[in-house]
Amino acid sequence: MLTHPAVIRRVIWENDDTFTLTLDLTGVLPDFTFLPGQFNMVYVYGMGEAAISISSDPTRTGTLDHTIHRVGAMTTRLAHKKRGDMVGLRGPFGSSWPIDVARGKDVCIATGGIGLAPLRPVLYTILRERDQFGRIILLYGGRSPLDLLYRVELEKWANEHQVEVLVTVDRGDSSWKGHIGVVTALFTYIKLDARNTVAYVCGPEMMMKYTVDELERRGLPADQVYLSMERNMKCAIGFCGHCQMGPTFICKDGPVYPLPRIRPLLDRKEL
Ligand SMILES: Cc1cc2nc3c(=O)[nH]c(=O)nc-3n(C[C@H](O)[C@H](O)[C@H](O)COP(=O)(O)OP(=O)(O)OC[C@H]3O[C@@H](n4cnc5c(N)ncnc54)[C@H](O)[C@@H]3O)c2cc1C
Ligand code: FES
Question: What would the pLDDT profile of 19-35 be if each residue is shown by its tens digit?
């Protein structure tokens, strides 16, 4: 439950309302480790905490990245932070994307908006051992070309690591030559080897629901599909019930779930 102080070493604006904070852990949490998909509670002193996924490479030591979308009071206050400012950190919490189940198989990552942040550590991990995986397909959707996250890395993953990167936007602009439409429409352009593919899905709940429907239509067995869920968090350790979704507490049982565990809840709106 302890909150540790961490100094902001760098702030990168990914787009107009999303930024990545690099936090310095040296001397504070020198032994901090995490698994892809886990999150921290980031504390603004005197104000409160927000659950934020860790978006950096799990093998990097000394610093941690959190990519944050400004939506309300806490994330706006975080957006005003500068290099040298301090935030509190509690974590890491939650379950992780299972990587070992995908060894020897194809990987399909389907994501929208800020959902790419918790999946970036997956890409760092599997690209380090690229030859242990088959095809790696990244389907990614943003609101507009300027809203896309990690644009330099998207190109690098495609050009240097044979990742099949397919990007779509809701609204194009005069320079955009790519796809326009929802993430699920990108499935039209790929052929999946259903029995031999593991899928990781993260994004707005409606996007995940339609993506799961599409994967099921293409014959992917449910136990080869993993999703990351979001709910408002308070304690992050299974005490307060804030993150409850039906019978499960997302902070400790999730946020990453195998589809069979979460499928019955995906179709229900209020839980
Ligand atoms: C496990 C987990 C990982 C997360 N990872 C990230 C991340 O990497 N980057 C990031 O930007 N955000 C992430 N979030 C969401 C983030 O915690 C919320 O956006 C943040 O707490 C909002 O705080 P706020 O005070 O700025 O906005 P608020 O004023 O609290 O909320 C603004 C709006 O967002 C909605 N909202 C707030 N929190 C959530 C939530 N958790 N799920 C769905 N809707 C919510 C509110 O209902 C409201 O409509 C994550 C959430 C969880 C549970
Ligand atoms: S946030 Fe308190 S139980 Fe999950």
Answer: 999 999 998 888 999 99
